[in-house]
Amino acid sequence: MNTNVGVDVAFKDLMNNGFDAFFVAVGMFGDRSLGVEGEDLLGVFQGVDFLRDVNLGKSPYIKDQRVAIIGGGNTAVDAARTCVRMGAKEVTIIYRRTHEEMPAFLEEIEDSLEEGIELITLAAPVRVLGDEGKVTGIQCIRMDLDIFGKDGRRKPVPQKGSEFIVEVDVIIPAIGEFSDVEKLFEGLEVETWDNGTIKVNKKGQTSIPNVFAGGDVSTGPATVIKAIGDGQRAAESIDQFLSDENNKTYPWRIHKTANVEFDMDAEPVEFARQKPERIPLEKRIKSFDEVEQVFTKEIAIKEAKRCLRCEMEVELLKE
Q: Does the structure show a pLDDT above 60 at 311?
């Protein structure tokens, strides 16, 4: 507990202390910097750090401030919506690609626009402006989308002479996270991808046979449920690795086919998707209450009746 591996103790030393297997799930805990002049001014807060501080009750003063969020992912949108709830005067998201290319969840983006957050797309920061050590604004430049890069996305390139200024009091960069894997595995040869994430096989196993990894540190920033799934798969893999039994069957992997009468010749009947109730806009922007409410019993039953009978395809394929 309260031990920083790679600082307080070396991972290499742990491997020599009698442990038979390891699971690494350190996440992506570091914020990437903007790399522009003025980023060290008072009023610049990194996205993940900001959200963590809000959760711990020690966040910076945001009420009545003009805030700019840099980035288009879920961290950026979460930070923007959080600032609205903290009473910010204005909140603006600045993203270097188009609205459609924002990696944040679509419903989160739509909710942020409903909550009055301004979105400036095809723009990137070039300098943080300040006076007496405090942020007064951010200088940006318009972007065009050029040729496709290795990631399959068009590369943003600056428009010469298109600089403009957004006057703000607070800037929250949220342009991505990273893990210091090299420091963690100092002295060990663990294979990584170009983006710094750990290479694993389908069992979550790294290039060192008794070291497994999962979650963001192996996939890059993703969802909580993806990390939970990685953890379950790794637990199974470690169990098989330690017992030298590769074909174990686990109870949660046994799926039973529901015995439900189904007329293959019947015409399909359309049932509209049931949407959970949402708290009113004027209430949600003033609190951190859950926006989407849980299904009532009646609505849950209606939604369940929309079952597409996925197992029917499986049974037909078997035949």
A: no
66-70 and 90-94 beta bridge pairing: parallel
Q: Which residues are CB-contacts of 293 (< 8 A; sequence separation ≥ 6)?
A: 276, 277, 278, 279
- Domain at 30-177, CATH class: alpha beta
Q: Please count the helices (runs of H) and the strands (runs of E) in the chain.
A: 10, 11
Q: If you search the block for the tokens 């998201």, which residue do you land on?
A: 93
Which contacts of 311-317 are long-range, i.e. CB under 8 A and separated by 24 or more positions? Answer: 311/257, 311/258, 312/262, 314/257, 315/257
Predicted structure pTM score: 0.82
Is residue 59 within 8 Å of 27, Cβ to Cβ?
A: no
Spell out the domain ranges in the chain: 11-27+201-251, 30-177, 256-319
Alpha carbon distance 160, 192 (integer Å): 36
Strand, helix or coil for residue 74: helix
Q: Element (H or E) spanning 107, and its range?
A: helix 106-114
Q: 98-156, pLDDT tens digit by residue?
A: 999 999 999 999 999 999 999 999 999 999 999 999 999 999 999 999 988 887 888 99
> Residue 147 CA to chain centroid, in angstroms?
26
- 176 secondary structure, DSSP code: -
CA dist., res. 82 & res. 76, Å (int): 10
Q: Which residues contact 294 (CB under 8 A, 6 or more apart)?
A: 276
Read out DSSP for 21-73? Answer: -EEE-----EEPP---BTTTSBTB--HHHHHHHHHHT-PPP-TT-EEEEE-SS
Give dist(CA 146, CA 159) in Å, integer.
11
In angstroms, rounded to a whole number, what is the distance separating the alpha carbons of residues 40 and 33?
Answer: 10
Query: Measured in Å, how far apart are the chain's first and last C-alpha atoms?
Result: 53
Rounded to 10 degrees, the C-alpha dihedral 8/13/15/17 comes to -100
Distance of CA 94 to the CA centre of its chain: 18
